[in-house]
Amino acid sequence: MTGVTILGGGAFGTALAVALAEVHSRVHLWARQMPQGREMPRLPGVILPQNVTVSPEIEVFGPILAALPMSQLEGVLRAHPALAAHPIVACCKGIRPDSGLGPAGVITSVFPESAPALLTGPSFAIDIARGLPTALTLACADPALGAMLQEQLSTPRLRLYLTTDVAGAELGGALKNVIAIACGIAMGAGFGESARAALMTRGFAEMTRFAVAHGALPETLAGLSGLGDLSLTSSSEKSRNFAYGLALGRGETPDSATTTEGIATARACAARARSAGIPLPVTEATAAVLAGEISPNQALTQLLSRPLTQE
Ligand SMILES: NC(=O)C1=CN([C@@H]2O[C@H](COP(=O)(O)OP(=O)(O)OC[C@H]3O[C@@H](n4cnc5c(N)ncnc54)[C@H](O)[C@@H]3O)[C@@H](O)[C@H]2O)C=CC1
Ligand SMILES: O=C(CO)COP(=O)(O)O
Questions:
Q1: What gap in Å lies between CA 171 and CA 214, rounded to an integer?
Q2: How far apart are CA 245 and CA 6, in angstroms?
Q3: Is 238 a catalytic residue?
Q4: pTM of the model
Q5: Atom 8 of ligand 2 has which residue's CA nearest to it?
Q6: 36-70, pLDDT tens digit by residue?
Q7: Distance 120 CA to ligand 1 centre (A)
Q8: 27: left (phi > 0), else alpha (psi -120 to 50), else beta?
Q9: Rounded to an integer, what distance in angstroms lies between the CA atom of residue 115 and that of residue 84?
Q10: Whether 134 contacts 108, CB under 8 Å
Q11: Which keywords has UniProt assigned to this entry (predicted)?
Q12: ipTM here
């Protein structure tokens, strides 16, 4: 009898529960909102298998997957100190504006003795829940724990690649959301697909520059958790970050009720890069548009009027 516990009954927690129910006898989904019938409100149309239990009380079976918004991770861990005794895999993407910490860093800051892991990469919740083939990165600094989690969390259609580069996986997953917002803005403002390709490519250069300056390996950024997720998120309206930018670019009011992790991350990264002297022009322009300081057209002018340089 094997099991996993998932914290967060949103779209991603629900999708992971459905996928992992295929390979575990028991999956416990800790959620604030209960299912209607066997459907969770954030992922309608997806039926929870019978071996998934949903409850507002945390019950621990095997590793814990934290599929919560980045802003909520620290508070939930602090409220449940008993979780410190179990392996915790963060499934969120972002950087905290106050501390600059990513999800694994948040886990370590709350539970200093833990060896946190991170599950990240290109995957829309609905694709995973439908059983479509997906490949993700599992990052853990402890190779033995990482290998165990890789075995426990892989399924026949959810293929996990292992790395010990936690910083690279954290920053790739966080920064791609900012570039996805930038791409959405560009498409919404009518700048065209060539402009989007330029933003993705120069954005990827920024992601790599920032991450390497924070101890990441460039090859991690070129993998699923960086380039892979950037490709998915910057080119699909299924992405909330891309959709948010698209609305902004069109001059519409974006849906602020969605979990759009790139907003806080843009602010956090732009501020940190500025104080560290790391040039991140796309990220800075995106943060300024998100803050309402400049329009998409002003951001474009700002980017195009930078001195000509080497690629
Ligand atoms: N939806 C997707 O396709 C993917 C999402 N992710 C990441 O997963 C994380 C969660 O995103 P989603 O599940 O999509 O968001 P969501 O907006 O669908 O759901 C968030 C869930 O967290 C719950 N929640 C919020 N605060 C809470 C608290 N204090 N205590 C308990 N539960 C709380 C909400 O009730 C909601 O069910 C994000 O960091 C996101 O970037 C990663 C890959 C794919
Ligand atoms: O991270 C995701 C896909 O890998 C989901 O993207 P959004 O959070 O923009 O919807």
A1: 9
A2: 30
A3: no
A4: 0.98
A5: 240
A6: 999 999 999 999 999 999 999 999 989 999 999 99
A7: 13
A8: beta
A9: 10
A10: no
A11: Cytoplasm, Lipid biosynthesis, Lipid metabolism, NAD, NADP, Nucleotide-binding, Oxidoreductase, Phospholipid biosynthesis, Phospholipid metabolism
A12: 0.99
